[in-house]
Amino acid sequence: MGSSGLAGRLLDPACSLEGPGWLQRHLLSGEFDQLRDFSIFESNFVQVTRFGEVANKVTMGVAASSPALELPDLLLLAGPKEDRCLQLLGLFPLQFVELFVHDASRQQLKVKLCTGRAFYLQLRAPAKTRDLEFGQWVRLLYRLRFHAGQGAVPFTQEEWGDEEGDEETDGDLEERERDWRDQLGVQEARLDRRPLNSGDSDSTGPAL
To answer: Which ranges form a coiled coil (predicted)?
Structure first.
């Protein structure tokens, strides 16, 4: 299936439930020239502990670094700053990340870095669209898992009761990114760390 298939539709901002999300508009603002043309499939989440206690708010998206790619190859994480600002916290190659459906009934995903560190994200969306939006993530997840059989991104359904003690709850994504990059020597785009004030662009996006 080419980029016009399931993954391609999910990465097209025009096909999202309410148009381009806040992270997409953040990149379109021009502060990140190397990322502004990326199509992103994104959602807002709350970071939770393994048992569902809320820690902080996160926006997560996946993107393809080239229009020629059939599937996304990048994971983006962003978080709120003071005064309704958004800050891009991490840009990770998906080959070094595992995504799981942690708890479908609570619409929770698990993100695990290859260092063994993991965190849990619960979808935060309007009630009328929440099921549909989570379903989009699940379909994309399994599409990527199928592709992983050919040596691509490893995505799977989490097995219950595994990986005790791997959870992080401090919510410090910037610290995780620095630690991960230092350990892996991963080449990443150089990102301008200045947060984007939502008032500088279309402010109709969700407030984190």
So the answer is: none
